[in-house]
Amino acid sequence: MGVPCIVQVVGPTSSGKTTLIVRVVRRLSDTGVRVGVVKHTHHDIDTPNKDSWKFLEEAGARYSVVVKGDGEKVAVFTGGLTFSDVLGELSPRVDVIVVEGFKHLSLGGLRVDLSTTGLSDAEASIIEFVEKCLAGGRRL
């Protein structure tokens, strides 16, 4: 498998980034495309004093993995990874990586800015880009 297609979605708060990404991921996944999503946030993602936080912050583990049931949901917490490390972890597992935010980074691939593009046009642009990016230019 080659390098995954990179799609970056940026825009102001409440501009529809998550809505757009959900629509695109659903559409791509329905056609068999393996999609990974990376979201940038300023909010805490691991709760202080919970087990997964303690393993990382207090004990110094590199990874803390929380598994619900027999693996129906898995959350991986880690510290000290660069954005490049994250992309490297996803790359062999997916065909497309959709990135929400990280507007200060130039990632290559397609960058959609919802401050200047409507949701419908953005979705069409992303699907067209992914079709061209994937081997054989298959229609989605």
Automatic annotation (TrEMBL):
InterPro entries linked to this entry: MGD_biosynthesis_adapter, MobB_dom, P-loop_NTPase
Pfam families, A to Z: MobB
Superkingdom of source: Archaea
Coiled coil regions, renumbered to chain: none
Molybdopterin-guanine dinucleotide biosynthesis protein B (MobB) domain span: 6-108
Record Gene3D superfamilies: P-loop containing nucleotide triphosphate hydrolases
GO biological process: Mo-molybdopterin cofactor biosynthetic process
SUPFAM superfamilies with a match to the protein in the record: P-loop containing nucleoside triphosphate hydrolases
Signal peptide feature range: none
GO molecular function, one term: GTP binding
Identification of the protein by name: Molybdopterin-guanine dinucleotide biosynthesis protein
Organism: Aeropyrum camini SY1 = JCM 12091
